[in-house]
Amino acid sequence: MLAFALVAGSVWVVLELSSTLMEKMQSRDLLLGLQLPELEDLGQFIRSLPTSTLLGLGALTAVLAYWITTRPRSIVPPCDLRHQSQEVQMEDGARRSMMGSRSELLSYYHEDAKTMYEVFQRGLHITGDGPFLGSRLPNQPYTWLSYKEVSSRAELLGSGLLSQGCQPNTDQFIGVFAQSRPEWIISELACYTYSMVVVPLYDTLGPDAIRYIIKTAEISTVICDKPEKATVLLENVQRRETPGLKMIILMDAFDAQLVEEGQKCGVHIQALKDVEALGRDHHRKPVPPAPDDLSIVCFTSGTTGDPKGVMLTHGNVVADFAGFLKVTDKVIFPNQDDVLISFLPLAHMFERLIESVVICHGGRIGFFQGDIRLLPDDMKALRPTIFPVVPRLLNRMYDKIFSQANNSVKRWLLNFAAKRKGAEVSRGVIRSDSIWDKIFFHKIQASLGGRLRMIITGAAPASPSVLGFLRAALGCQVYEAYGQTECTAGCTFTTPGDWTSGETLIRDFTLQHMH
């Protein structure tokens, strides 16, 4: 109603002003009459205007002021989009981002966060007793562990591991065989607190690959979530395929029979909470790592043979997400209020890298229930602001949206609205409060919690048509990343303001320091 009144007022201003000027000037030379500097007294001219015209001028000023202050702002790219990188001389075609120093590679973003241990400590300093890791049961709200609680549990778990023979150095490899959940992060931080190395294991590797990794990395301790996974690990020991495995720590409850099976083959089975209790009785002072220390060994899927272990230092991981921050810091910097929905495997560096960005700035991470079919319900309950995703899920979202537009008229209207909104996106305007959002896209945005401000997609190419539609429909910044485990995670990334799809490899380059 206000907008209508202002627009009507502006029209009225034009009509009133035109009428008054015509009364004061003869039709002999209208253009000459409009040369206000030739009037002897501009103030006298204004005072001579009728009250209705002055009111109209005031209304016009209000309209202009309202438009200036509320018009959507375009995202300003951090560099010339036609010149985003330059070739490095004498480096056989290697290219360097234009967004950083030409003489030095970027090793870290924050002076107080040069290792993954320091990354967490920085988040702890920012948020303290505030929420950190969240989980939920079906039809229940999220419950949260604070940064301080996670810090305490990580120290207790790490101390408990050391009290049972693990060594606080980078020669100690700890396997983590679990779905994404709070205990995964706690286990990881326990290793970092005492300079131990994390080795992720996951189901999709297959039993042969898991046996190979445990044997190759000489893993003596595995932390896993479910008794079924512990049974698989025990069977490998019983067949003498992984004789070095001596301890399995379980997140979930288990029965006495599993303990007996472990005793028969020399494997100690115990609960995570019991190891933490042991750490409380035998607490050890943290042994923080250095940037050049090994932090994690991620084994690839082994599509060309046996899995290959990628050895990443703390400096590798910190440098990679420093590149992410460098590219986006002027347009969408993470903060304490950010909430990330975690459903991708933490065994993959893509997910872990984005979560590290959130942790470094004191944000929250909420985990899905473990069933991808319940992810929409989890997102409504969590209301995330950051959504790491893979193209396959984006395709499902796109298909579901158009399946609900069940006739040609609805589909035409949806496409029409997306094109109109897409025209704004192409100009760098990203918003969720346009008329198209209110009429067509509000329900789509609400189905994802209604607070998204950033989506990052990687792991596979995304369809340009799907990505273009979702950029318009979701009203948030959508970034594409390209990378591989060998370069920590992402090695190229969409430049803010460049909303073309499918060109991260060619056009966009981030900074990272590979040791």
Automatic annotation (TrEMBL):
It comes from the Eukaryota. Keywords: Fatty acid metabolism, Ligase, Lipid metabolism. Its EC number is 6.2.1.3. Coiled coil: none annotated. It is an enzyme of class 6 (ligase). This is long-chain-fatty-acid--CoA ligase. GO terms for cellular component: endoplasmic reticulum; membrane. Residues 141-501 form the AMP-dependent synthetase/ligase domain. One of its GO terms (molecular function) is long-chain fatty acid-CoA ligase activity. It comes from Ctenopharyngodon idella (Grass carp).
